[in-house]
């Protein structure tokens, strides 16, 4: 499937910001199933300094610094992306069982398995806990294929959690999400990663977009999409497989990946510092995921 | 050696049998003795020193010890400074050096270099291919689970082989006489500067012993350090600018940071003194932005850049890492090197050494267990009493836990904590440290000793500092390990050579001589601002104390002070200190109980304007600029701190019998400070700003004093007493009497205090001086001809005074019975002086606000 994604971020400050340094994780990356045909980022006011590079996790990070006073900062990204279908979706019983997966992960001396350990540990925003493990434990029976168990977990989160954009912010701690069982995609993804890691499985946090289709008979609204987040689980012999707890699905060719990391803090869309700018700022984000006709 | 030791009964004297010293020194039980082979027989490399000691005797040694502490105090050598500037802890130096013989040193030196080389390889691997993890030599969690593993630094490297530029090792010597490393410091190793200060002090108090012992010089190490930094910096700039990045005056080792930056000739800067623009790092200097090429950091790496690293605002430079990444600034040690400090690595070092070097390390590390490993975890839970538990993540405040001191309940609690995050805990076995003689309250006691040694990158290898820092715990000798929770004393390490060392010059031929302009460009605006405020606060303190002293004098005078005069003076005091309402409160409540208010104006540090608050502020400013202060100035600053302490104690008990005399010491110290300022400081830009601070403060204070005391219409006698008091407080009473005899008239008072340009305390004198200073400040080139705002406002003030009519000023208004014209003029002058300081501040000081993070999650891993 081919897409054109446009992601527009606007910061409006109460007073001029005199200087800012930012790192954006807004440019999509290449993956096994995803090719970036073209991508373009423009920042206004024009940065005095900017660099694009590959970060630790292989994502594209974009560093820029604006050195002139500005009350408004606009970051406009548009990319043409081609996504191919997943061959795992719908084949839930093709994976090793939970027991075998754990054994394979432990025993294997393969270097890439050792590196995967990074995603089995706690990370800045996701602390492993018994509580998280207990949530998923009943679903991960020893003989059950891991892929099916993980999908069941995805469904359980989808069923038990309430989507509520007013309940959390980007910095809401996981403990609070667990307590209230409310949140947005980011919180659900953190939660699921936390459950998987607490059970001993390597899991990472994925950010990106999802193509939304208008209700039948209605026009698609431009710019009404949003950035999205889901999880990826490492399954021995299969590799990384994605799950989307917000939509109770396994991402296929309607999910477009921007970046992945241990959690949100590794791939914050925009991080950095500003000087001055008054005591308030408003942020508006508009995302548009448009399907391009196949040629 | 071991057999001999174990055969010894404890408590037996060890120095030569008939000496006075002999009776004090106790044999350590079951520990390696640094000095003696057996009773009365010192090791060959100690022989000369022990003999000299015995000749000198205990009393003389006590004197030398005192002298050493005096020098340290005068140098302001502190450690663990607290927020309270009146409380400092002087660095503690033991008068006994720690001696290393030349053969022993040769072996140790090689082992240190080898260890640094290995640490360097590990660092390169961690931020490179991570072969150690891939091959399973180091468990992934040790690195991945450590918040000091800075993923942002992946692939960032310095030119050349050596990434680790400085390395320090803590070692103890076991019963077999062999050294064991108990910890590595690779972040921003503390101690080399203290070692240098120790050496300076000890070579002064033990000059003969030092000279005749052929001690290796420490300066070689610093020469290498400077060479390394310069050669790295030359890739960016033929004459690189190197700065020392400090966390500021409240850092526990701020003394060392200031001391080293002076010794090495680098500017001492804080994070806010630097700024990143156009992909480079710049120093915000008085002369504008100056490019920085090398940063010797004393700030932990995770705090170095608020953009990419932790948000914990401890003096980082936003954007720094990106400049490092682009290779446009050198940071030493490199960002990310802190992870090498994790004690978890110690367990794996033997295998790592085998992997990288193909052989074992010459000096082993302390036996360690990493709780992230199942077997180790089981061992630790069963042997807690015999282990020291350390957090795998070293922080400023992290403490070791001594298993054997825990109650059963505490042990259980600790095990719960470990179980929660096993990979964050490491256990080490107790090591019986060697003992060395230590001076303790007039006695020589044998104490467990730990040494810290240093290496510095030297092209493709490492150079070991021939010396270092030994530390002993001040406690009973029965303790066989060094426990740094207790009070610790340091020792100078003397590496002995067989022959006197040949002199070698540390002058770097390649370095350009700096001009005044260069110096100006090296001075951070913050330093200038602090000097300015140091001048203002010391002047402000002096004015207040002088006025207080006068009030005390007048209140106790044999001629009782009339009520009206008293009220004017007390109210003036409240106005002068800015602590209103105070004596100016309605109904004169405070005046009726004047003592309480007066005491509070002296010792209440929370009251802005009080003597203590002013002295505190002054001391804080002086700490911020300590590297700029001469030795004599630091001595006076220390005196001031002591004076204030005494004053506080005295007045805390109520009004003392001679309050006026009690204030004399502090006035003398303040005068000494301004005298030094005037007589011994080079007339550089730093001096000028301090002088401006003093002048502008004195001008404002004088105008305020004239306004608050002389505007009120009083009876002739009452007025006389007030005028007399004012003259007394500004030290002009004698001149006044000589000139005007007994004509206590406001007219003459103003003549002397306002207009007389020969009176160094007159208002005119201050503003005229300000005018001269301001004309010599660096000016922006664009406005070379036009008169600057700050000069205009001064010229107007001078004219306002010159054009005023003394008769008019001293005349009373019939309507209000006040000197309205005088009030008005003083008000104008005060306003203009405040405008002036505003102009100066806008033009020369840094006004960048604090950075805000646009996204800041909770980064810290719980430990």
UniProtKB/TrEMBL annotation, chain A:
Pfam families: Bact_transglu_N (PF08379), Transglut_core (PF01841). GO terms for molecular function: peptidase activity. The keyword Protease applies. GO terms for biological process: proteolysis. SUPFAM superfamilies: Cysteine proteinases. Transmembrane segments: none annotated. Residues 177-247 form the Transglutaminase-like domain. This is Transglutaminase-like putative cysteine protease.
Automatic annotation (TrEMBL), chain B:
PANTHER family: BLR2978 PROTEIN, BLR5612 PROTEIN. Residues 523-845 form the DUF403 domain. Residues 97-472 form the Circularly permuted ATP-grasp type domain. Pfam families: Alpha-E, CP_ATPgrasp_2. InterPro entries: ATP-dep_Glu-Cys_Ligase-2, CP_ATPgrasp_2, DUF403. Gene3D superfamilies: 3.30.1490.270, 3.40.50.11290. This is Putative circularly permuted ATP-grasp superfamily protein. It comes from the Bacteria.
């Amino acid at each position: 499937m081919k897409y054109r994604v446009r992601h527009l971020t606007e910061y409006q400050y109460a007073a001029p910001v005199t200087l800012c340094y930012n790192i954006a994780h807004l440019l999509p990356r290449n993956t096994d199933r995803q090719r970036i045909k073209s991508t373009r980022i423009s920042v206004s006011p024009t940065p005095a300094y900017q660099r694009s590079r590959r970060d630790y996790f292989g994502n594209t990070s974009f560093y820029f610094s604006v050195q002139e006073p500005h009350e408004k900062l606009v970051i406009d990204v548009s990319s043409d992306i081609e996504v191919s279908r997943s061959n795992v979706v719908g084949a839930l019983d093709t994976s090793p069982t939970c027991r075998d997966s754990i054994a394979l992960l432990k025993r294997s001396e393969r270097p890439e398995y050792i590196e995967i350990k990074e995603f089995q540990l706690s990370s800045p925003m996701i602390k492993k806990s018994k509580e998280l493990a207990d949530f998923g434990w009943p679903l991960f029976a020893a003989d059950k294929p891991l892929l099916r168990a993980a999908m069941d977990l995805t469904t359980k989160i989808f069923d038990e959690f309430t989507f509520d954009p007013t309940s959390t912010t980007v910095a809401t701690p996981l403990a609070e999400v667990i307590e209230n069982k409310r949140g947005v995609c980011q919180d659900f993804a953190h939660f699921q990663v936390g459950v998987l890691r607490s059970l001993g499985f390597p899991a990472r946090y994925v950010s990106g977009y999802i193509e939304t289709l208008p209700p039948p008979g209605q026009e698609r609204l431009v710019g009404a999409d949003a950035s999205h987040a889901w999880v990826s689980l490492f399954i021995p012999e299969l590799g990384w497989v994605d799950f989307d707890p917000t939509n109770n699905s396994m991402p296929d060719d309607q999910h477009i990946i921007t970046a992945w990391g241990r959690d949100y803090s590794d791939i914050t869309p925009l991080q950095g510092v500003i000087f001055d700018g008054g005591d308030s700022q408003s942020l508006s984000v508009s995302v548009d995921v448009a399907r391009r006709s196949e040629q | 050696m071991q057999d001999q030791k174990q055969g010894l009964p404890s408590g037996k004297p060890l120095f030569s049998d008939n000496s006075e010293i002999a009776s004090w020194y106790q044999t350590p039980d079951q520990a390696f003795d640094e000095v003696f082979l057996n009773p009365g027989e010192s090791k060959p490399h100690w022989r000369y020193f022990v003999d000299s000691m015995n000749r000198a005797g205990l009393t003389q040694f006590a004197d030398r010890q005192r002298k050493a502490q005096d020098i340290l105090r005068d140098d302001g050598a502190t450690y663990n400074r607290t927020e309270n500037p009146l409380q400092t802890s002087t660095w503690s130096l033991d008068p006994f050096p720690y001696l290393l013989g030349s053969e022993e040193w040769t072996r140790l030196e090689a082992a240190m270099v080898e260890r640094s080389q290995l640490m360097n390889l590990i660092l390169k691997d961690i931020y490179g291919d991570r072969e150690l993890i891939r091959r399973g030599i180091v468990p992934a969690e040790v690195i991945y689970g450590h918040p000091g593993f800075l993923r942002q630094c992946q692939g960032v490297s310095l030119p050349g082989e050596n990434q680790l530029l400085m390395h320090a090792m803590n070692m103890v010597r076991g019963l077999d006489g062999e050294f064991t490393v108990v910890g590595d410091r690779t972040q921003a190793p503390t101690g080399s500067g203290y070692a240098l200060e120790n050496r300076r002090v000890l070579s002064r108090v033990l000059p003969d012993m030092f000279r005749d012992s052929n001690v290796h010089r420490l300066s070689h190490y610093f020469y290498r350090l400077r060479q390394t930094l310069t050669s790295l910096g030359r890739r960016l700039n033929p004459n690189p600018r190197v700065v020392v990045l400090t966390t500021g005056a409240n850092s526990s080792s701020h003394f060392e940071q200031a001391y080293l930056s002076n010794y090495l000739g680098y500017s001492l800067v804080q994070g806010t003194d630097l700024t990143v623009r156009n992909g480079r790092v710049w120093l915000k200097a008085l002369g504008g932005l100056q490019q920085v090429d090398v940063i010797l950091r004393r700030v932990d790496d995770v705090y170095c850049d608020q953009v990419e690293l932790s948000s914990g605002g401890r003096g980082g430079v936003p954007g720094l890492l990106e400049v490092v990444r682009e290779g446009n600034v050198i940071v030493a040690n490199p960002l990310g090197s802190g992870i090498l400090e994790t004690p978890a690595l110690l367990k794996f070092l033997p295998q790592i050494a085998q992997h990288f070097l193909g052989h074992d390390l010459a000096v082993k590390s302390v036996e360690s267990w990493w709780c992230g490993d199942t077997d180790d975890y089981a061992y630790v839970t069963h042997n807690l009493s015999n282990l020291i538990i350390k957090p795998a993540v070293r922080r400023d405040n992290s403490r070791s836990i001594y298993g054997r001191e825990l109650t059963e309940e505490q042990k259980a609690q600790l095990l719960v904590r470990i179980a929660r995050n096993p990979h964050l805990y490491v256990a080490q076995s107790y090591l019986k440290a060697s003992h060395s003689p230590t001076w303790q309250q007039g006695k020589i006691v044998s104490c467990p000793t730990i040494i810290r040694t240093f290496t510095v990158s030297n092209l493709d290898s490492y150079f070991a500092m021939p010396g270092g820092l030994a530390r002993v715990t001040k406690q009973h000798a029965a303790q066989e390990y060094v426990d740094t929770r207790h009070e610790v004393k340091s020792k100078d390490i003397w590496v002995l050579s067989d022959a006197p060392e040949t002199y070698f010059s540390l002058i770097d031929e390649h370095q350009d001589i700096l001009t005044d302009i260069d110096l100006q460009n090296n001075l951070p605006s913050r330093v200038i601002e602090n000097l300015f405020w140091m001048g203002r606060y010391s002047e402000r303190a002096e004015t207040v104390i002088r006025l207080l002293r006068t009030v005390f004098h007048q209140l106790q005078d044999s001629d009782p002070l009339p009520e009206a005069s008293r009220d004017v003076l007390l109210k003036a005091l409240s106005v002068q200190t800015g602590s209103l309402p105070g004596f100016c409160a309605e109904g004169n409540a405070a005046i009726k109980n004047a003592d309480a208010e007066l005491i509070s104006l002296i010792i209440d540090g929370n009251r802005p304007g009080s003597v203590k608050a002013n002295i505190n502020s002054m001391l804080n400013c002086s700490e911020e600029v300590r590297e700029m202060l001469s030795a004599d100035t630091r001595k006076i600053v220390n005196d001031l701190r002591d004076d204030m302490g005494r004053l506080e104690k005295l007045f805390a008990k109520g009004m003392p019998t001679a309050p006026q005399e009690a204030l004399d010491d502090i006035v003398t110290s303040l005068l000494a400070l301004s005298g030094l300022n005037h007589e011994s400081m080079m007339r550089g830009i730093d001096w000028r700003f301090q002088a401006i601070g003093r002048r502008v403060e004195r001008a404002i204070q004088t105008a305020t004093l004239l306004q608050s005391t002389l505007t009120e219409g009083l009876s002739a006698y009452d007025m006389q007493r007030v005028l007399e008091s004012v003259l007394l407080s500004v030290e002009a009473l004698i001149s006044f009497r000589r000139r005007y005899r007994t004509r206590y008239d406001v007219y003459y008072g103003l003549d002397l205090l306002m207009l007389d340009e020969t009176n160094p305390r007159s208002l005119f004198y201050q503003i005229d001086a300000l005018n001269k200073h301001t004309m010599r400040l660096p000016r922006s080139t664009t406005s070379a001809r036009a008169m600057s705002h700050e000069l205009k406002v001064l010229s107007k003030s001078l004219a306002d005074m010159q054009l005023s009519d003394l008769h008019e000023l001293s005349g009373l208004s019939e309507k209000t019975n006040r000197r309205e014209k005088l009030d008005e003029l003083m008000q104008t002058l005060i306003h203009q002086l405040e405008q002036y300081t505003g102009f100066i501040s806008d033009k020369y000081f840094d006004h960048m606000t604090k950075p805000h993070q646009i996204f800041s999650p909770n980064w810290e891993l719980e430990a």
